[in-house]
Amino acid sequence: MQTAAGAGAATIRRFYRWPLLVTVRTRFVLIQTSHAGNVGAAARAMKTMGFDDLVLVAPRWANVLRREETIQRASGALDVLANARIVDTLDEALDGMDHLCATAMTPRDFGPPTRAPREHFSRFAGLSQPAPAPSAVETPPQGIAFLFGSERFGMRNEDVYRCHVCLSIPTNPQFGSLNIGAALQVIAYEWRLALGSFPLPGSTPQSDLADAARVAGMLAHLQQSLEALGFLDPLAPKKLMPRLNQLFNRASVTHEEIHILRGIAKAVLQQSAQLQAKVPDGASASGEPEGQPKAQDIARATSASVLQKLD
User: Fold this and answer.
1) Where are the domains positioned within the chain?
2) Rg, the chain, Cα only
3) What is the mean pLDDT of residues 101-117?
4) How far apart are CA 171 and CA 174, in angstroms?
5) Check: CATH 3.40.1280.10 for 7-195?
6) Are 33 and 59 in contact (CB under 8 A)?
């Protein structure tokens, strides 16, 4: 399959030490599968990773590709089922493949080396974690086949022996049982990473960050509102505004966020002005208008009014 181009390939390339594979024929082979649902699940797992070459060797049901359970478990991967082939022997299934990967939950005493999928694929694609020694790097295959045995017995020893490697997925030592669909999904994912992953779906574009001038203008506006609230004493400001400046620098505020903050400051000033307008010119001996709200009362009322609007 072709690797994904653009941003996806660039992202994955960071995890690789050597050039990525470009084209490798990839085939998934299910041997003597007995449950139709597993065939559908395998097709679905393959399609999610961009693979479509599925071969069934002597399945229990001759019409397994058309059975209702298969179609339901495929969950829309009908093109993979339509492209799938049923053959009588493993030799037919492996035609044209030059690198064979068996699958097993536990290592065998004899046969090909047992490796985790990522460890083995790093020998081709150069995964940096873990990175193989230069002498361990192998020539990428032209065609690779992943073999899965029957649900009940797994792969026969003679089928494993003809493979180049036995892939074993690292699992919980107390419970390592995976059904075929789940195991195939994991291996297909790891192989897709080695080939070059698909780009992530497009996310919401990030807004442009506000420049220093916009942040300074917002802070000046905010300072006015804080003074109107009585929160900031202009005669003894201490380090409040520099601290707020540092806070907004760390937050990396955007243009839209600047507009929101300035809107809040504007609302505070408007409410404060409206309350101040209710105070007559006459004042008591204490310096506060007789029978009218005091400065701290105006500040509290302004705060409550603004918060109510924000709610």
Assistant:
1) 7-195, 212-310
2) 34
3) 84
4) 8
5) yes
6) yes
